[in-house]
Amino acid sequence: MLVTTKDMLLDAQRNHYAVGAFNIEDLEFVIAVVRAADEMRSPVILQTTPGSVKYADLDYFYGMVSAAAKKTHVPVALHLDHGDGFKLCMEAIHAGYTSVMIDGSHDPFETNIAITSSVARVGAAMGIPVEAELGKVGGKEDDGKDAGDDNPFTDPDEAVEFVQKTGCTSLAVGVGTAHGVYKGTPHIEQDVLKAIAARVDIPLVLHGTSGVPDEQVKEAIQNGVCKVNYATELRQAYMRGFMSFMAENPDVFDPKKPAACGMKEIENVVRSHMQNLGSDGKA
Ligand SMILES: [Zn+2]
What we know:
The protein has 283 residues and is of the alpha/beta class. The chain has a single domain (5-239, 269-277), classed as Alpha-Beta Barrel (TIM Barrel). 50% of the residues lie in helices and 16% in strands. The structure holds zinc ion (ZN). The site of zinc ion has 7 residues, from loops.
């Protein structure tokens, strides 16, 4: 069933686990992620970046995800990841998305507050949860420009003020993770996370989690993270399955065959993360 992220994240917060948010690129990702959630009896968030929305559009993703959600009893949410403005957030809500992120983290603090508040006000009126971001997650999100080594951590005092002034319902924080593929072993600043969680009572969100060791993610959940995003690992898994099938069967021209191998790889990745996040058996 298609639901909002509200109860999902509050239950995760109360019971010290996290819900995985998996970026979907096409129909195969939708089928594979929901199949894994159904098998694991886990709540799940499927999300699309503005880049994926440009590739298909909001209506296609809503159509696919709502169809998948009808086939399972586990709660499924459809979330706009890194919404880049008021307009796209409104279009997503209008298209049937059950959760949105407005990312004003590249703007100055006051501008971020203004743009986040404008979306959060509508979200509150329409019953749609609104994730915001404060501080910076490093690397390159979607097809935007690379944040490089510019990776300032979220300031706990600013986080308190930001949440109070904007009314956002969950907060993505900069605690050392980055989007894309890591060069070395990533390191989550658990102390920064603890300091934020001690003062902010809404669920915290971890971005750029592909490639972060499971133990660090587990610790972050104990320190207040309730939603964990995975994009890069799913893309890699899908292409790994797809390409290795084609390497062995270069003459096959039925796309369903390599796609099925890609989907299997995605399912494995998603199942293993659900176990680590502790969301398995929660639905
Ligand atoms: Zn992100």
